[in-house]
Amino acid sequence: MNRLFVEQLNIIDFSYLDAERGLVGETWMLDVELSGKLNPQGMLLDFSTLKPLIKNLVDDAVDHKLLCPLESPELIISERQQGFTVKLALAGGGHVVYSGPAQGLGFIGSEEINPETLGAHLLALIEPLMPDNITSTLVTLRPLITDDAFFHYSHGLSSHSGNCQRIAHGHRSCIQIFLNDERNSHLEDEWANAWTDIYLADKRHLTSEEDFAGIPHCRFSYQAEQGDFALSLPKNALCLLPNETTIEYIAQHIAAQIRQQHPDAKTVRVRVYEGLYKGAMADA
């Protein structure tokens, strides 16, 4: 039996609904392993065929989407004229409600979203595309293992021309903070803890504030090229920024807050990642 592998074939940035954590931004790497018989070219499958085939499929299925666990008893889905409304009741009270185009959602046939359930979902999509000489396909999803502090955030960029315009997609992002040109792990941990499972919102998109069962909620909405988007979630699960929540503005926001807390520091620098291997830096 011959085996072929591709590590980190794709990087998936997405958000998912979880009754305990709420709206969770995440970034996972995708590894693939194939087993089977060699074809007449002496290959299982040419890398130049395999990589774009799987990447395009995975991007269309889950990347930059809000993933919904269809078997969760806390989830209610209703179809609307131009998409869906998805409501998740939270274990701590309150709810998360998404309303928008279907292309902003991914429906996963499980009670919760984790690397195993999402991997099984993707495997079911990938296997039918494999040639006859492939007898076994293995899909593995994994986060980056790092010693850096990191946080999970979700957001939407209303003016973006691509899939970042979707109101609930997200990332797992590392943060590095330098005071006087030296790393400050204490500040990094503070920000990572403060922004655990945070929704970063442009305050210009705030349309209403309401109480549900005594829990304050905020509703955001905007119109983008892909359609009309709206999102409601508990107020304590979000942070309002004065502008679009691009990674550049996120880095600037953090740096400005640190400068206010440390006015005597000679230099303040922030490096914050948008998922893996990319991000922005800001000085204040």
Give the tags.
4 helices; seven-stranded mixed β-sheet; Tetrahydropterin Synthase, Chain A; alpha+beta; 284 residues; six-stranded antiparallel β-sheet
Q: Spell the H/E element sequence.
A: EEHEEEEEHEEEEHEEEEEHEE
Shape: globular
Number of helices: 4
CATH fold-type name = Tetrahydropterin Synthase, Chain A
Q: How would you state the average pLDDT, rounded? A: 97
The assigned structural class equals alpha+beta
Give the CATH class: Alpha Beta
Q: Any low-confidence stretches, pLDDT <50, length ≥5?
A: none
The domain count comes to 1
Strand content: over 45%
Description:
The longest helix is centred in the first third of the chain and has 15 residues, at 47-61. It is built from four helices and 18 strands. It has one domain (2-172, 199-242): 2-Layer Sandwich (Tetrahydropterin Synthase, Chain A). With 284 residues, it is α+β, with helices and mostly antiparallel strands. The strands form three sheets. Strands 9, 10, 11, 12, 16, 17 and 18 form a seven-stranded mixed sheet that branches. Strands 4-5-6-15-14-13 form a six-stranded antiparallel sheet, with no helix packed on it.
Describe the structure concisely for a colleague.
Helix content is 18%, strand content 46%. It is an alpha+beta fold.
